[in-house]
Amino acid sequence: MTVYESVTSDSTTAPAEPQPLSLSAEFFLAQEPFADGTAPQAVRLAGRGPTRLALGYPAASINAVLTLDMAGRIIHETLTDPSHLITRRIIYLDHG
């Protein structure tokens, strides 16, 4: 999989161009706030189209919005904390 990531701590300027990161799915998921499969706050966002989940981690001051594909894989992620906005687009290299 390839993760395209953009990180900013300055909300007064446009975000940087996303940069590709080559990561294994296992490594990527291990670094996520939801790595253990839980979230203190979780809600499925209403609307047509892809499944979107909002996750909250109040103790860590982290929020996440995930967009899932038809296979249930994360294809877009937005993470926020008090100092950062991180956006990611995930491309899967399906073999078969």
Account of the 3D structure:
The protein has 96 residues and is mainly beta. It contains 1 helix and 7 strands, in the order E-E-H-E-E-E-E-E. The protein has one helix at residues 25-31; strands at residues 2-8, 19-22, 41-45, 51-57, 62-68, 74-81, 84-91. It has a 7-stranded antiparallel sheet, with no helix packed on it. The protein is globular.
- Helix-and-strand structural type: mainly beta
Beta-strand proportion: over 45%
Number of helices: 1
The H-and-E topology, N to C, reads as EEHEEEEE
Beginning-to-end CA distance, first to last residue: 14 Å
In quaternary terms, these chains amount to single chain
Instruction: Tell me the number of strands.
Output: 7
Largest sheet features = 7 strands, antiparallel
The helicity comes to under 10%
Q: What distinguishing features does this structure have?
A:
mainly beta, 7-stranded antiparallel sheet, 7 strands, globular
What is this structure, in a nutshell?
This protein has one domain (2-91).
